[in-house]
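Field notebook, page 183. I keep forgetting to write these up properly, so this time I am using the form the group agreed on. The chain and the ligand, iron/sulfur cluster, are recorded exactly as supplied. Prediction of the bound pose follows.
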Amino acid sequence: MAYLCSTFYCVNASNYITDLSVIAAEAELKEEENRHFLQSLKKYDSTELDGMAHAVNTEVSTAVDCTACGNCCKTLVINVTTDEVDGLAAYFNEPRDTVKEKYIEESQGGNFFINVMPCHFLKDKKCTIYENRFTECRDFPHLHKPGFKARLAGTLNYYGMCPIIYNVVEEMKSRLGFNEVSE
Ligand code: SF4
Ligand code: SF4
């Protein structure tokens, strides 16, 4: 992946912004604009929006290199299913209880999650158990799923930390002709 860097930020060859500090700053600046964008989607058909969002997500996800980012692995609580705890034990060839003790915390409600942030398995921005990573890791940032409009409020919670989300949302604004001044 080719990157073009100025003093201020890096964009990749597709002109998507990937610098996390720029994206975090943009999130603060655009908080109100994003609220208005969310409201502006009411007038669109959900299925048509999904078609556009999935196409945009494919383009952005192809261009943005997650192995140069790893920010979700540093900042999100990763939920893990019981089967995935078993899978982790099998992968490391260790007893389940040992794996739980090392890597997993259990909530009062009995749910499992990775017990540290950044995640144990992140090294140099890359997942060291990539083929065995958890469903939650595979699914984030969920933009391949149906319901872009219904999900956008939740998606925007991560707009300032995930380059894929940031660029998908900005590209959707552009393709929909969203204009903060006139909306
Ligand atoms: S999903 Fe988003 S936050 Fe996670 S590594 Fe990829 S670009 Fe970074
Ligand atoms: S298991 Fe891998 S993909 Fe999932 S949070 Fe940890 S390092 Fe990231």
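OBSERVATIONS:
- Confidence is low (pLDDT under 50) at residues 1-10.
- The chain has two domains: 23-62+140-183, 77-129.
FOLLOW-UP: compare against the apo run.
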